[in-house]
Amino acid sequence: MARSLLFRTEDLSEYIVQFFVRHDITPKDAKIAADILLTADLRGVDSHGIIRLDTYYGTRLRKGLIDPHAPLSVVRETGTTLALDGGHGLGQIVGYTAMSRCIEKARQSGLAMTTVRNSNHYGIAGYYAMMALAQDMIGISFTNSQPLVAPTYGCKAMLGTNPIAVAVPSGKERPYVLDMATSIVPIGRITVYDKAGKPIPEGWGIDHEGKVTTNPKEVLDGGALMPLGGIDLMRGYKGYGLAMLVDIFSGVLAGSAFGDEVAQPSNNKPARVGHFFAAIRIDAFRPVEEFKQDMDHLIQMMKESPKAVGQERIYIHGEKEFEMAERRRSEGIPLLETVVDSLKASGQTVGLPFDLEVLGVIE
Amino acid sequence: MARSLLFRTEDLSEYIVQFFVRHDITPKDAKIAADILLTADLRGVDSHGIIRLDTYYGTRLRKGLIDPHAPLSVVRETGTTLALDGGHGLGQIVGYTAMSRCIEKARQSGLAMTTVRNSNHYGIAGYYAMMALAQDMIGISFTNSQPLVAPTYGCKAMLGTNPIAVAVPSGKERPYVLDMATSIVPIGRITVYDKAGKPIPEGWGIDHEGKVTTNPKEVLDGGALMPLGGIDLMRGYKGYGLAMLVDIFSGVLAGSAFGDEVAQPSNNKPARVGHFFAAIRIDAFRPVEEFKQDMDHLIQMMKESPKAVGQERIYIHGEKEFEMAERRRSEGIPLLETVVDSLKASGQTVGLPFDLEVLGVIE
């Protein structure tokens, strides 16, 4: 493993806020964006955290592809639904505002759904779903993203890794938080194998002819990721169907880009990413306390069920991430040296030295 | 392949109606149930059609485990939500009524969700989702079912094959209809391999110790199905997460049974199956015509994208089933001779000979 340096969450947060403020984001919005990025790092979804600060956000802000002052405008609104136009704003701000308004509407109407067109990459989908938890609501968020996944029997990346995130409150147990790409693995996983010079497991990706390959370079170079399930025999068309589903809600219903028309963050054009949010009041269906007791019971049922040979523990979705976040909040967030180097480089570009105190080193 | 006999859809429908009427179901309800069962046969989901007429429905009706006159009662209701108690009625009637009322509510409010507790197996989930299509709505249906799937790292069946069905209207293209079990394959698929004395593909199921096995008997005899994705390396915990999601909406939110407490149809007790339905008005978000044009565009994008070597066609979800239904509607529905034999046997039990005209034989 490469060396990582440990940093305090608060220090990283303050740095990100300053970084965004330098890009003309208001301090209030910058704090929201920092919280969303660092929630990814805390939960162990390093690929969606501070590592993208400059590549996905800073660079696009400086090029004028993300509008720091984008006004979120209402396209259509009813008592239960809200269709928004993100105005090419920062995905995190757009997403946070859209989910906040969705929750507000659900408070009034029991249910609400919000779509967003013309946004940018918004970080981890799970953040927005989890916003509903404190309100005793179920939260849902989908987003489409740049094409990386081939449809079953296809060989070209036509769909994003289009995540599904659903957060459900529980009682004594930790909440259930599903936050899953609809591909088997994200593209970053393939890059990790490529950099390490190792073959990828058979079934994660295909080459430019649509053949399953274990060579990460062939996936990265004109190939594609496989949808959840993998090959046809293992029912990969279900993962392909889920990726389509997310694109229908986030792209088509929102009136945003979809399919392979969603732009890469590195493209010099508006990304036109679309998002979908939903909030559901538990008490519209049954008393909250009863629901939470049953959630605890369902969770315990799974965790206490017999383990496979060689296994000691069954996990609930989100559980590993909650534990990771607790650990990292006390011990610090580890950033790979290469990530620290790139933060130093981008910091220099914008005149904001990345010189935070290092709490420790992990070899 | 075993021999199949071909029957007219109308003849089978009339037979099913008579069969249910003999079990004290009203003719109106019997017609609905027949339509739902035969929609499965027409679409090629033979496992969920007439094959179950007696095992899942007739037998349970005669034992008093399904109440033919169950009144659907309202547990809780708001302008957008409806929590129903199915009163241990026939799953198809409960499901049809619940989705009809969900659609009616969505017509008023833009969105609606309906849960049902204390129901029985309701057939194919896709039928209820598709009910929304003619209303220019997106339809969603989930149901939980008897335990057949082990959680990741577990070895005991704790969750049903809990399907996700979503139907979305399109313009010139056929609608998108996702109707997928959250396991890799249904249990019936394992039985087919077992009867044929063939090994199952590696990854579909595990034995009683949680080890992946290719012996179908080991899956059937105290083992379990694997969730979509399969083993951990291929991200089977995502399929496990989706199965949990369906159980949370259908079981926990509905206040019905969940996890391994949902009874097998062959058990001598109420199944307490739970369902979830949602309907979403397209025009709450954007003009229906624009939406349909974009759906067509998304569908064409996929279908016209480059094919993998050796493949000639990319499918959209539901497409194969729509084509199959057209063919079977004109050529007849094929029933395996063993299925015909069991229909004859159950027909004799209830004094309703199964002696329909055979249109042809498929060897």
From TrEMBL, chains A, B:
- Gene3D superfamilies from the entry? 1.10.1530.10, Hypothetical oxidoreductase yiak, domain 2 (3.30.1370.60)
Q: Which residues form a coiled coil?
A: none
Q: Does the keyword Electron transport apply?
A: no
Q: Which SUPFAM superfamilies match?
A: L-sulfolactate dehydrogenase-like
Family matches, as InterPro entries: Mal/L-sulf/L-lact_DH-like_ah (IPR043144), Mal/L-sulf/L-lact_DH-like_NADP (IPR043143), Mal/L-sulfo/L-lacto_DH-like_sf (IPR036111), Malate/L-lactate_DH-like (IPR003767)
Pfam families per UniProt:
Ldh_2 (PF02615)
* Superkingdom assignment: Bacteria
Q: Signal peptide span per the entry?
A: none
Q: Which GO terms describe its molecular function?
A: oxidoreductase activity
Q: What are the protein's UniProt keywords?
A: Oxidoreductase
The family classification in the record reads:
Belongs to the LDH2/MDH2 oxidoreductase family.
Full protein name: Malate dehydrogenase
Q: Which organism is it from?
A: Longilinea arvoryzae
